[in-house]
Amino acid sequence: MSSSLSPFLINPTDARGLVGSRDEQLLQVIRDEFGDQLASSDDWFSSEIKDGAPTAYEALHAVVHGGPYSDNPEHAFQYGYAYKRLCALTGSHLDNSSFSPFRGTWLDVVDEGLQALRITAVSLAEFGYSSGMPDGIPYSYLPGCGVWTHEACLEALEQFEQTKRDNHAPPLEPEVVEAIADVLAWLRHAQARPGFGVIGFVS
């Protein structure tokens, strides 16, 4: 079974602020412009919805209004995907070609490559957990969500620059080098936007 990492360039504070914002205009935009995506999601999760899980729009409405949420923990995944949709709408998609799809421990493998380059301020594995979900959104195993703050992105880039200054070049597999190049591009995008970082979702 394969997974996918979806990273977004976004201000994490602004993203968290969408939860409980009661922004009806935002909900209307999503309903008008992304109705097909919502319908596709409902079709994919039709059996879960039949068993009482909220629809994609119902989950979005709950997240934007800060509740109410289903008491059934098996339905919590819909709220995580709702938050992902909010980040996708308000942030910018980053190139994830090295991470979609991926299998097994690929994120850990690339993390090992980053660490070999002495880059420790960020970790791809963080995106596989749910520690980045805003407070209040019910916990679910999927989607995973992690946050790289602007400061962490700057620190990681400085660590990379120091590695270059030290002429430290450990041998890495070509596919790992390619994936790290993608990560460095994300970090540079964040560097160029004060306050912006990376929010990533694994599903």
UniProtKB/TrEMBL annotation:
Organism: Kitasatospora cathayae
Domain DUF7691: 1-203
Domain of life: Bacteria
Descriptive protein name: DUF7691 domain-containing protein
InterPro entries, sorted: DUF7691
Pfam families xrefs: DUF7691
